[in-house]
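Recap from last week: sequence in, structure out.
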Amino acid sequence: MVLMMMTAFLGAPAAQGQMRGSFDDADANHDGRVTLQEFESYATQQLISANGPMAQRFKQLSSQEQAARLRQRFNKKDTGHKGYLDRNDWNGS
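Predicted structure tokens:
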């Protein structure tokens, strides 16, 4: 779940506040789906702007390691392996 990924990197209170209304922010082309590219862009932006200890560890990873971790989280939440996240995937339903 995106929230779990953000919680792991940002800490629970910050992640919950950031992720509740952010599906629309992550859905850059507003088609009701968050692709891997949209997810990586959004999550990276959120993690890079955060200052918590988990975010600091994320920042220390190589760009390849960052991308691999984000892909892993995306794939875990992509119910049915559709190639995108819908609101149900995003919200953990």
